[in-house]
Amino acid sequence: MPEDAIDEEEMASTAIPNQPSLNHPKTPPPIRNAFTSLMSPKRQPTTNPPTPPTFHGRNGLGAYITSPTSFPPSRVISHSEDFVTIHDLYPKSSIHILLLPRHASKTLLHPFTALSSPTFLLAIKTEVQKLRTLVAKDLQRQYGQFSTLEKARQEALETSPPPQNLPMGRDWEKEVISGVHSVPSMNNLHIHILSKDRISESMRHRKHYNSFNTGFLVPVEEFPLAENDPRRHPGREGYLHEDMTCWRCGKNFKNRFKSLKGHLEEEFEAWKRE
Q1: What is the DSSP letter of 58?
Q2: Distance CA 109, CA 176 (A)
Q3: Is 116 left (phi over 0), alpha (psi -120 to 50) or beta?
Q4: d(CA 34, CA 92)
Q5: Residue 128, CB half-sphere, CA atoms under 13 Å: how many?
């Protein structure tokens, strides 16, 4: 079986919340005497509430697909009949969200198979574009104050009257990547949309990094894939075990993950200032 990039911790089961708990303490029964026992109606036998479904291990995303309204906005961003968008529980960048298609006929397919359908691929590309715009706006909100390009535009806007030709400002959408893993870590179909920075405490080792910095991540815009595309054979290509190179400057850190992490922090600060 081809290798993926997930940790045991990241395969924790997901239960649908906001359901009655079987372990909830019961209210003590009222004190009864002979008179109240005779006058009160017969008590109907009680049944325990159903156990909320738990989606184990690699099926964990199924909880969000099944019952998105049970989760708080800190987890589920939006949902519709066709899609659920969530924050990645173990983000690999400062902004990292997942698009979960709800189609029963697609959700358990490998992404290469699911995205071979022209109609479905168009729907995915349309939704991904909306989310790229959403992430870009959040990047601007978080980091615009540090950006040289944003500063030039803001200063022009604040002049009176503002110039007829405003500076373009920073194209934050270029700082967003989106794609699927050639070997998905979870069983339900999901598409990654994330910022380029790769800054996160959840980025913990080479496989994590290379899964988002090599051909292991296939951009949505490059589908449909040709039958002879080498990314269809990630094990043969050895993406997860390649040398780690900085996504921004290309410096090769070979297998020195700790050194790469320190370098990424420096690049993050420089990237914000662009």
Answers
A1: G
A2: 25
A3: alpha
A4: 66
A5: 23
Helix or strand run (H / E) with residue 131: helix 118-143
CA 104 to chain centre: 20
Q: Please tell me the distance from the alpha carbon of residue 231 to that of residue 215, in angstroms, as a whole number.
A: 6
Model confidence over 209-229: pLDDT tens digits?
A: 999 999 999 999 999 999 999
CB count in 10 Å sphere of residue 43: 7
On the question of a cis peptide bond just before residue 45, with omega within 30 degrees of 0, the verdict is no
In single-letter form, the type of residue at position 171 comes to: D
Please give the model's pTM, rounded to 2 decimal places: 0.84
- The Cα–Cα gap between 100 and 16 comes to 16
Token pair 């990547």 is at which residue? 177
> H or E stretch including 36?
helix 34-39
- Residues 63-120 have pLDDT tens digits of 999 999 999 999 999 999 999 999 999 999 999 999 999 999 999 999 999 999 999 9
Structure tokens at 94: 């400062």
